[in-house]
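#structure-requests
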Amino acid sequence: MTPPTVDALAATVPDGALLALPPDNSLPSVALARALVRRGARGLRLLGVPVSGFATDLLIGAGCVAEVETSAVSLGEAGFAPRFTAALKAGAITVRDATCPAIHTMLQAAEKGVPFMPLRGLIGSDILANRPDWVVIDNPLAPGGDPIVLLPAKQPDIAAIHGAMADEEGNVWVGRRRELATLAHASRRVLATVERLVPGNMLEDERLAPGCISATYIEAVAVAARGAWPVALLDEYGFDAAHVAEYARLAKTEAGFREYCERHVLDPVAQAAA
């Protein structure tokens, strides 16, 4: 069976979906983000797992995003995410502040099929005043005076990840980024792009199986060479700091962002050759 294209995957993402994206150091599918821009997606609610980076800023700049829930949005050494900053100042998006442990805890609750999980480290922080959905109670297993925060389970509609390879069974290899397994287990659907397809079943290989997400959790896989670019992919290729710096420079203005998209997003042939 011929695998779907990245644009075919993007066509299955409905407007308004809660879309989870790993951070730039943990295998986001930038290829799928570009395809969503080409599709003209609208009203997406993005979840940074647990922080947001290049793909999030790209989607915001293209007008695809209504809401972002994350603990940070950054381009790393290239500085602030310019389209996120502009949209926030303009009131064009809603931002739901979170913390890294909180986002992982909410996903773990969904993974385990429970309605909430407790987390202690939020006590005393200002973030609780802005998250009415996070509830502080007394620890029911303590004598009293021991507050704990209950966080609701978070189940993304779709997780977009990029792996090094997928096999004939649909298993996707993500190497040492095992936090993606929790994301896959918690999400209703997982759409994966990969560098290449390989024969056989990686779950039968003792060396490869620990780095795999089982096909049980993967809805569809598309081949997208350099699909994480310009961010890094494990030991396959490194972070393209020069390209991200160029993006940060251009995306300071709407005109510059449009120029970037015309060169690197709207023309998939040119992007593939980058």
